[in-house]
UniProtKB/TrEMBL annotation:
Its EC number is 2.1.1.297. One of its GO terms (molecular function) is peptide chain release factor N(5)-glutamine methyltransferase activity. It is an enzyme of class 2 (transferase). The keyword Acyltransferase does not apply. It comes from Thermomonospora cellulosilytica. One of its GO terms (biological process) is methylation. This is peptide chain release factor N(5)-glutamine methyltransferase. Residues 66-192 form the Methyltransferase small domain.
Length: 264
């Protein structure tokens, strides 16, 4: 069977707008849209530079299809490494919290890998919270809105086995250097980590020991350049840091373990 003219027209429009993978993207758009009108709308949104995942309304993450709404951070491939590390530390039936959850992709992927967990996710951005609810609630998880730990029910204090937190970690001065897709179509608060990129991470590290269960772990993604300072922030607050790297995914994760004593 040949490729239909509308498909070729879609490819041409995407190519002329500068999409390098025009054929692949056209295929995804055509198979996602429910009507020819929807195809046209999606193609134009992509042509003006929206991230493909926001145009489609979903992203593939850890082999799952995760809903992604306009303005919400698109889960990155490299962050699958953070999920893998979390899955290795979590146990069935344990308490998993995805703080700074965006679409909720990380918690959903951990829950899907483990089968059964008590899953909570939280974000400050109402658009992210709405999106995360669509991904997390069908799995029986809970999504909370608010500033870091203030969003969480106090009953979770001292009970979290695995705390994933892909905080914003781009230094303020470098946000302007990001690709336009991120800079223009993802919320600033999803990207900007303050002067050295570690402001949010330091706040998470400071409070995490009181929320983790004895023997629980905090996992944060960072960059090679920031990894020493990130590990230092965890260790300053009584967590024992370990660094994990994936060359394949160009990913760096700091894992902080809470001891079994009372946090200081
Ligand atoms: C880098 S994005 C990560 C999103 C998601 N975890 C992922 O990896 O796809 C950071 C997220 O942190 C959220 N955020 C930023 N500051 C926050 C705060 N003070 N409290 C809660 N969430 C915050 C942003 O809204 C954004 O969704």
């Amino acid at each position: 069977m040949g490729i239909s003219p509308p498909f070729q027209a879609v490819v041409e429009r995407l190519r002329s707008a500068g999409c390098v993978f025009a054929e692949d993207e056209a295929r995804l758009i055509v198979s996602t849209a429910r009507t020819p009108d929807e195809v046209a709308v999606m193609v134009e949104r992509r042509a003006i530079g929206l991230p493909l995942e926001q145009v489609l309304g979903w992203a593939e993450f850890c082999g799952l299809r995760v809903a992604v709404d306009p303005g919400v951070f698109v889960p990155r491939r490299r962050t699958e490494f953070l999920v893998r590390q979390a899955v290795a530390l979590a146990r069935r039936g344990g308490v998993v919290v995805d703080l700074c959850c965006g679409s909720g992709a990380l918690g959903v992927a951990v829950a899907a890998a483990l089968g059964e967990v008590e899953l909570h996710a939280a974000d400050l951005d109402p658009a992210a919270v709405r999106c995360a609810r669509r991904n997390v609630e069908p799995l029986g998880g809970h999504v909370h809105e608010g500033d870091l730990f203030a969003a969480l029910p106090s009953a979770l204090r001292g009970r979290i086995d695995v705390l994933l937190s892909n905080v914003p970690y781009v230094p303020t001065g470098e946000v302007g250097l990001l690709p336009a897709e991120a800079r223009l179509h993802e919320a600033r608060m999803a990207l900007d980590g303050g002067a050295d990129g570690l402001d949010v991470l330091r706040r998470v590290a400071a409070e995490a020991p009181r929320w983790l269960a004895p023997g629980g772990h905090l996992l944060v993604e960072t960059s090679e350049r920031q990894v020493a300072a990130a590990a230092g922030a965890l260790s300053r607050h009584g967590l024992t840091p370990r660094i994990a790297r994936s060359e394949e995914l160009d990913a760096v994760v700091v894992i902080g373990a809470r001891g079994t004593g009372t946090p200081g």
